[in-house]
Specification:
Elements: H1 4-13, E1 20-24, H2 31-42, E2 46-50, H3 69-81, E3 84-88, H4 92-100, E4 105-108, H5 110-113, H6 116-126, E5 132-136, H7 143-155, E6 160-165, H8 183-191, E7 197-199, H9 201-205, H10 211-220, E8 225-229, H11 247-256, H12 265-307, H13 315-331, H14 336-360
Parallel strand pairs: 1-2, 1-8, 2-3, 3-4, 4-5, 5-6, 6-7, 7-8
Helix pairs in contact: 2-3, 6-7, 12-14, 13-14
Bound molecules: phosphoenolpyruvate (PEP) and manganese (II) ion.
Length: 361
């Protein structure tokens, strides 16, 4: 992952005291819309203007983007405001058109990252250029697929690479449009610390009210940038209306965010500590969520036992679970004493749940 240092240098060259901010509408709609948003963003921390030209829609019949025509609007916005530009490319023809219109940064959408054939096609089309490419995570929570896409670009000698975390699909409804699964980008960042990591809070949230909190978590996890969908009249946007914010709200968010500076040793220590603590927080939330899921299953077992008039405590099964988890714990460098204490507590909670179920019947 040597090459990603080039993009790091590229980011540093901005001399930004803040994360790289990429902002703009989900979709380019009209020339006036693109220009108006670009001019409003010019007075914020935004460095790069985003706008989708070709929109991948999950179901047909929705607005599928204005197509190549919109590239001219981006070009004009760049001339008038000095902002850099970025758009999504999903095949070699898109790449060709984007290059002809001088788009500065290309991004690979989540539905493209899942397809090695298309990623390869795009990587081949970019061979020998010095374009910056940002690769969104695949729609499904699969680190290997994300890394695979990164590797295909490196192998095609595309040097300036970064990744965008936009959350992952789940079949179950959650409070997010796309579940953040912070552990996946954290794993990616641990393996390739030089690969710039950008958060797309808009597609994770699917709504406006949690954009700030998502951005703050990302900065605490040492992310390098943010890509935020922005529109002067979000409710009337032709796509993703619920999640877009106004340029002035974005401006306020960048003012309110706690930004991590790296100037003194003490600061560096605090930053590292903060990053590690945020990683722990992510894992702790997961632990409690998993415990909740475990107890829901215990409730079902409680009901089943009560219906069949079977005792709640099954000593043989309990000893088997404990033995298995002690062995599992060894593999993760966890002491037997710790596993025993932890599982005793879990087992007790599980018995309480089953008892409550039996009493309610
Ligand atoms: C977008 O950025 O508007 C978009 C379609 O993103 P994703 O590929 O993350 O769904
Ligand atoms: Mn969108």
């Amino acid at each position: 992952m040597e090459n990603s240092k080039d993009l790091r240098k590229w980011l540093d060259a901005f001399g930004l005291q803040h994360p790289l901010v990429i902002a703009g509408p989900c979709s380019a709609e009209t020339e006036e819309q693109v220009l108006k948003i670009a001019h409003q963003l010019k007075d914020t921390d935004t460095t790069v203007l985003r706008a989708g030209i070709w929109k991948p829609r999950t179901r047909p019949g929705n607005f599928e983007g204005v197509g190549a025509l919109g590239l001219k609007w981006l070009q004009r916005a760049k001339e008038e405001t000095g902002l850099m530009t970025t758009t999504e490319v999903a095949n070699a023809n898109h790449v060709d058109l984007a290059l002809k219109h001088d788009v500065d940064i290309l991004w690979i959408g989540a539905r493209t990252t899942v397809s090695p054939f298309i990623v390869q096609e795009i990587a081949d089309a970019l061979k020998g250029t010095d374009k910056t490419v940002l690769i969104k995570n695949p729609v499904n929570p699969d680190l290997a697929l994300w890394l695979g896409a990164v590797e295909r670009f490196y192998t095609a000698d595309v040097k300036n690479l970064g990744v965008i975390h936009r959350g992952f699909s789940t079949y179950e409804k959650t409070s997010y449009r796309n579940n953040p699964e912070w552990q996946i980008p954290i794993d990616l960042q641990n393996r390739f610390p030089d690969l710039p990591l950008i958060l797309d809070p808009s597609h994770i949230a699917g709504r406006r009210d949690i954009i700030f909190d998502l951005c703050q978590t990302a900065l605490d996890l040492n992310y390098d940038g943010l890509m935020v969908e922005t529109h002067y009249d979000p409710d009337k946007a032709w796509s993703d209306a619920k999640q877009q914010i106004t340029p002035s709200r974005l401006d306020q968010i960048t003012v309110d965010l706690r930004i991590r500076k790296k100037d003194t040793n003490e600061m560096e220590f605090k930053n590292q500590l903060n990053t590690l603590r945020t990683q722990i927080d992510v894992i702790d939330n997961k632990v409690v969520e998993m415990m909740g899921k475990r107890m829901k299953i215990a409730d079902k077992i409680g009901g089943l036992k009560a219906d069949n008039n079977i005792a709640i405590l099954q000593v043989k099964r309990w000893n088997e679970v404990l033995g298995r988890m002690i062995l599992e714990g060894e593999g993760h460098k966890l002491s037997e004493e710790f596993i025993l204490k932890m599982y005793k507590a879990i087992h007790q909670e599980s018995i309480n749940h089953q008892q409550n179920i039996a009493n309610d019947l």
